[in-house]
Amino acid sequence: MSPDGLASQLCKDCQLCCRGHVCRVVVTDAEAPLFTTAKFSERRLVDGRQFFTHQCPHISGDGCQIYDKRPLDCQSFTCKTLSRLSLGHLSLETAKKAVLDIKADIAKLMVDLKLDHYSDLSFQQIVKAWIAQKKHQTHPLQTRAFLSIINKLDRDVYSQSSYMSVLQSSVLAKTFDLTTPAYVIDDSALDRLVFGARDVIGDTGAKLLYSVKANAVAAVLERLAPLVDGFSCSSLPEVRIVRQVVGPDAKIHFVGPGIMPGDANTLIQECERVSYNSVSLFTRYGTQAGVKVGLRVNPHLSLNRNPKYDPCRANSKLGISIYTLKAMFHENPELFRNVDGLHVHNATGITDFQNLTATVNVIAETLPDLMQHIDWINLGGGYRLQTARNPEALRDTVRMLQNRFDLNVYLEPGTALVSKAAWLVSSVIDIFESEGQNIAVLDTSINHQLEGFIYSFPAVVGNASQDGKHTYVLAGASCLAGDLLGERRFDEPLEIGSRVVFANVGAYTHAFTTRYNGLHPPSIYQLKEDQSPRLRRHFQMGDFADACGV
């Protein structure tokens, strides 16, 4: 049977999606008569389609009874396991085992929690029902079981799902063995993100570096070390923390825009590659014999409209102009005898790999002689690796660089490997009314999510509810009047001590955290594979005093 045939067979028998475990079902008006017993939501999508979220009435023990005539929404959905099976990356037996393991875990949990009367509910509804019973304070093992199933669903079925993030946030909000504010690193999520990036890269042979500036927490570096091919650092302190946490075998590439005068020799000794950001740095430190030298190139191809994070903005400080490099190489090729690589990074949050192809084409067409001279190229980060469109464009571009120029190709994602691998768990410390609006003051601050404040990124509140009846303005505990984290709805009224969980804070949240007003940074926890939290660091008055030179 062909891979597509195997995928269809697995999909028909799986039933996880059709039982509402991971997704809702969206139908057109013409398809609605197929679901006369389904309870449709009162809300509709922007295009007018309606949806239901509970178990599909056409599912029985034999699987989907209308598989050949199922709605277009069902036909177009392809889970992670199906994708891998279709590509030949999984055997049918392995795929079946992943599905059966999840089903067995859910069945066992329902027995353990005596939830037989919820057998017609989806897993999401079971989680919500369990939380509503307020069992979280007395059932830590069940909490871990819920989180374990959520991780498996996210890993094998609905990768990077907002549904799974909401469920996990809801469980974390009811976990009371955390001291808040708490920055929670999820080991299993880090694994999923790296494996997802590897899936996109495919069999091209491109190497994966982790960009440390996104998150330098020790728990992150430890978990990623065996999964990536090295680390990309932008300062000597980052280099030293990687060396201290990961050890002497860590492969480190330096790509920072500046080098302190006293740091150059140490960087050259500690790093496998050093990419110089300017001609000035290159001529001062990169022309000595025996040094492995890279040059950061500015291709003058802007992919971001906001100049705050556009590396190719006018008068950019990031990289040597591609036209300057072209002229210098033709005028004095001997100057570049030690240069064995190029580094380019002109993307931030880009969702289409066609932009990467365009960038590489500009470099290849402008610097063909230099490209023939070098051994490697670092294509930077800034792409939403696991969800970007046209992944085949990435693979084709990598292969072109390998075949035409015989280059080793590196990618250095930061956000893509850590963003969805951490939560910020906070507690309500005060509630009051201000001019008719409920204000909930939290024990965290906008200064713990400073990147969002600087760039106006809305905070993602994982345990909020779009249809919740209770509305609050979430406020930070600092004196800043604008220390506000947005207005959100909740299914239950907030009380003193209630938890508010912020999702997708793995990238730049810890890196940008300040101690404004003397508020301590969030304690760092590591959510291990068995879903038990391990305290890695709790910050106290002495840390604030040290930072203030006391």
Rounded Rg: 26 Å
What distance lies between the first and last C-alpha atoms, to the nearest angstrom?
71 Å
Q: Name the quaternary structure.
A: single chain
Low-confidence stretches: none
Number of strands: 21
General form: globular
Helix coverage percent of residues?
A: 25-40%
Structural class based on helices, strands and sheet pairing: alpha/beta
* Largest β sheet strand count, sense and barrel closure: 8 strands, mixed
The percent range for strand residues is: 15-25%
Mean pLDDT level: 86
- Please tally the helical runs, counting DSSP H or I stretches of 4 or more residues: 20
Would you kindly provide a written description of the structure presented here, covering whatever features stand out?
Strands 5, 15, 16, 17, 18, 19, 20 and 21 form an 8-stranded mixed sheet that branches. The protein has 550 residues and is α/β, with parallel strands linked by helices. It is built from 20 helices and 21 strands.
Sum this structure up briefly.
This protein is of the alpha/beta class and 550 residues long. The protein contains 20 helices and 21 strands.
SSE blueprint and pairings:
Elements: H1 3-14, E1 25-27, E2 50-52, E3 59-60, E4 63-64, H2 72-76, H3 80-86, H4 92-112, H5 123-132, H6 140-156, H7 162-173, E5 182-186, H8 187-201, E6 207-211, H9 218-224, E7 230-233, H10 236-246, E8 252-254, H11 264-270, E9 273-276, H12 279-285, E10 293-298, E11 320-321, H13 322-331, E12 339-343, H14 354-366, H15 368-373, E13 376-378, H16 391-405, E14 408-411, H17 415-418, E15 422-434, E16 437-442, H18 450-455, E17 470-475, E18 484-490, E19 499-502, H19 509-512, E20 523-527, E21 533-537, H20 541-547
Parallel strand pairs: 5-20, 6-7, 6-14, 7-8, 8-9, 9-10, 10-11, 10-12, 12-13, 13-14, 16-17
Antiparallel strand pairs: 1-2, 3-4, 5-15, 15-16, 15-19, 17-18, 20-21
